[in-house]
Amino acid sequence: MLILTCLSASVTDAKGITLNNAPAQVYFSPHGGCTEAVVDALNRAKSEVLVQAYSFTSKNIAKALLEAHKRGVHVEIILDKSNRSKKYSAGDFTAHMGIPTYIDSAHTIAHNKVMIIDKETVITGSFNFTKAAENNNAENLLIISSMDLAKYFIENWERHKGHSEPYMGR
Predict the structure, then answer these.
(1) Phi, psi (degrees; rounded to nearest 5) at 150
(2) How confident is the model at residue 59 (pLDDT cuts 50, 70, 90)?
(3) What are the DSSP calls for 107-136, one per residue?
(4) Residue 77, beta-bridge partner list
(5) Per-residue pLDDT tens over the stretch 141-150
(6) pTM, rounded to two decimals
(7) Which fold, 22-166?
């Protein structure tokens, strides 16, 4: 049994959920297959992918999002405001490819690293969607299949989209 509890500044915002028999995979970087796991999950997406990313420079992940979009999967991305000024952001690529991309500038840092696939699979952890995260950094990635858990992440994603601005790329 896996028990996840998120404690936040307000007790009323805290979410507690018990996940029984929820399949999960854990990956670690560097060179732990995190990017490949994300790409594999995106390749299996059938209806929807919602993304929140702090740093997003992985060409492989951007390409997998585009391929999902081309297959008719609804894809939307929320990025931290730093993606506007970085030398390279895959957000420019996704925006130019017609994937709805947004900038969350309501926070000092929009530090989420989350994907919700088909309202069931949650990808999260410290793993930034970057080449450096895969090859150089010590990071972790957790993939959990749970509609109950995904519901909370979708609600959070929607709250952030509500205050984010459309990004057309540079």
Answers:
(1) -60, -35
(2) very high
(3) SS-----EEEETTTEEEESS--BSHHHHHT
(4) 51, 101
(5) 999 999 999 9
(6) 0.90
(7) Endonuclease; Chain A (3.30.870)
Q: How far is residue 38's CA from residue 44's CA, in Å, rounded to a whole number?
A: 10
Beta bridge partners of 3: 18
Burial class (CB in 10 A: 0-12, 13-18, 19+), 23: exposed
Q: Kindly give, in sequence order, each residue whose CB lies less than 8 Å from that of residue 152, ignoring residues fewer than 6 positions away.
A: 15, 17
> Which 3 state secondary structure label does DSSP give 87?
coil
Of 79, 142, 144, which Cα lies nearest the Cα of 109? 79
The catalytic residues are 111, 113, 118
Measured distance CA(143)–CA(39) in Å, rounded:
12
Residue range 109-162, pLDDT digits in tens: 999 999 999 999 999 999 999 999 999 999 999 999 999 999 999 999 999 999
- Using omega within 30 degrees of 0 as the cis cutoff, is the peptide bond preceding 30 cis? yes
